[in-house]
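tool=predict chain=A
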Amino acid sequence: MYIIPAIDVLDKKVVRLREGNYDDVTTYDISLEEQIDRYHANGTELVHIIDLNGAKGDFSNQEYLFNIIRKTEMKIQYGGGVRSIEKVKELIDAGVFRVIVGTQAITNPEFLEELSTLNEGKIKYADHIVIAIDVLDEVIKYSGWLESSPIKLIEYIDKCLALGFLPFSVYRYQQRRQVRWCRCRIV
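tool=predict ok
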């Protein structure tokens, strides 16, 4: 098993949202750079960063995040508001190792198809993509857990595999008798 630590960033601060709720934020007293350095010191090679501002269409964190990405020796898996091929290219050009796509991949099949065939020089973009899939009680969720997809999880994964995408980040959240649990895995 390979564990990839995740860091959420909101307004240039390391945070955690409770169940994706922007009104229920825990802010940590550590900078993103310090948190990345801690993971690196412990032998971590790859970190998963979500720009929560970007997820809402506000890219005011982007230059701050790009400066940190350029400085670190860590490989960065980056997501939050990736809704276009141009944004994917911009992130890879900025030094992002893998770009996380979620909502756009689920809601826009043409986006995935175009991304699967995109090659520039030695860069095959599909090799730098992580497909993020959030699942609540066996239903694929998107747009910050607010919308539900009629697509079945296995069908969606099969479709993505057929297009050449691997790996996946699957976050499964289940409710049972008022007890909630989650399982996160990279396939």
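Residues 69 and 85 are 20 Å apart (CA to CA). The first strand starts at residue 6 and ends at 10.
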